[in-house]
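Figure S7 source data.
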Amino acid sequence: MKNSEIWKKTKEWLISSDLVEPNIYDEYIKVANLEELCEEEKVIVVKSELSKWYLENLAEPIKNNISDNVGKDIKLTVLTKEEFEKEKEIKSIVSLKKERLLVSGYTFENFITGSSNINALNAAKSVIENLGTKWNPLFIYGDSGLGKTHLLKAISNEVSKENVGLNIKYFTSSDFRKNILDSLMDGFKEIEMTKTKMNDIDVILIDDIQFLANSGKTNEIFFNIFNSFVENNKQIVLSSDKFPEQLNGFDKRMVSRFSQGLSVKIEKLDNETSLNIIEYKCKIANINLSSESKKYISSFFGTDVRKIEGIINKIEFYFIQNKHKPGELIDVDYISKILEDYSFAPGGEITVQKIKDVVSQYYGVNIKSIDSSIRVQNVVKARHVAMYLTGELLKKNYSEIGLAFGGKDHTTVLNAFNKINKFLKEDKLFRSALKKIKKDIVS
Ligand code: ADP
Ligand code: MG
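Tokens for the predicted magnesium ion complex:
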């Protein structure tokens, strides 16, 4: 039943009851509305404090009447329009947080894919469908921050969802080593117990096995466990930062066992995947980045999802601190401010060459003249802007910049920075020109 219908019924009932004087009803109750925060939480929205006062006194019988009409117990509050709007906002933030909690686990669904990682995801899915029989071990490798742990945990979650009763165990390599070392210290009985415990596992996942290199006795036991898993068609999933053959500190027999199943690499993210991940993480964080901002982040951090998450957390934090309205658009300037104190390696997309290209085009000067010593006004301006942006966007120091601009010394660069800073302070038009140039560079 619609709230308007429910309210109509309740009002009819109120008129016919002797709970309220007709003149009070006409003036204060008839004009109120029934709304809801959720199905069980109804709100009478009133137009004045006096109306609120009258209705609060009637809240109990009204609540009972509505509960009877809808066939279930409801909660009822009386709020002014402003109070109701505020409550609604709080409610939506709370439900968003809940939603975020739900998606914060490691799943296949929240693993965003593109050409760099689709093979790894498909391999993970396929292993689940053929546990222990098809590809054993599954060996996932790639640089840090690209989702290896995410995939291992997603496999573990997915397997346990679909195979209740299976004993699935995820180990970081240090947990794994500690488990084995502890038992070695405690003597023969403990070793046997550890072996039995390992035998009870049906699916074992060990993360970052490069850290197990050179660990002597642990390795030997690992090798035994490994073999018995394979023999018994129990699935093993391993991750590492390197391809098996490049792992040092394991003996040859082991290395060849690692690659006997299926080895898949997670490659460095391509631009599109990195943008998709940024898009997705922003959606979860409820922040609205302009498309330049996304490209900007991607160009600096695009190769490492962990860094992307870090920067998005930072933006979210600033955003809440500065009490911005939800949904407010965040532009490149805002982000570069946040990133000012961030030390990062220059990203793949932005290069000194690109900066020179965009700047020389903007000022209509020949790109070669930027590196020259020509003192024509426009060229000087373009040169200074390009130097300044190289410092800002690529975090290079004065000497490095000088070198990249035809071998100028660092005082020349310092001079350029001083000039640009002065313009930025005094000249509004210049500020917006710089903003536009920056946008063109990062897009
Ligand atoms: P690794 O183990 O390779 O160092 P992680 O699995 O710990 O990397 O990933 C770092 C963070 O980035 C994690 O929070 C993870 O959920 C997230 N992440 C990595 N790849 C993706 C992806 N493709 N889609 C969504 N989130 C990802
Ligand atoms: Mg990891």
